[in-house]
Amino acid sequence: MLAIADFRRGYSGRPVVPLTPENLFFRGLILFLHKTSLLTFCVPGTCYAKKECNADGRWYMLGNQTRKNEWTDYTKCFDKESLLVSIYLGLACNIASIVLLVPAIAIFLVYRSLRRQHRIRLHINFFGALLFADVINILWEMLVSHDQLMSSRNFDLGASCKVLSFLRLYSRSTTYVWMFCEGFYLHRLISNAFKPPKSLLFLYITGWGLPFVYTSIYGLIRIIHDNESCWAKSYGQLQWILYVPNLLCLAINFFFLFNILRILLTQLKSHPNEPSNF
User: Coiled coil among the record's keywords (predicted)?
Assistant: First the structure.
């Protein structure tokens, strides 16, 4: 009965219990014996986490009718300064990325000889996807993450917040898919040098349309089953709707890379006196 032996009362008069496996096992018994609705678990040297017990003897659940989770208050465990530093570092990286991307895109667009080339057009779209993702990330960090960290308002900010969350998920996915489009085009040029693609329409539709499709599916399911907290919290297995296509893009690009290297090495061995052609 280590949990009962370690039981003590905090300054508020409510039970304070060290957070150990034994105490987690006996937490229901402690609540029953002391007839309190609030139990505080103490993590030595770190923080305090609170759980609330309902009148029926069950833990307070947070969520909607279709999906509820046992709620634990970790607000006192947050290191506000560290979170702010991480937000500011993320903003700095996004701003640095924008500073580098804008001149690159401008150069491609200014020179007609460049923007007429298919590979340069793909570069422009890929850079545009990265720029789009950076802008959305900045808006998210400033309007949602930073705002919620500095205020005590409810986290759910309404439809506008969910639209921004959707754009954040969509923009992130476009970077993966456009990376795939770049790899696909290069692989096509190397493997079929005499039959280059005549049109990029398929890649345009794939790069901007495919992420919109599976992000919209995720958004619709989220609206129906868990339309809370700006969609910032993970929805468990549902997240794989976003993860699987993005991971597939990376995996296929690795295949393209290895196959391109294989083709180049094979050609070099076949034409040892003409390395400049490869």
Answer: no
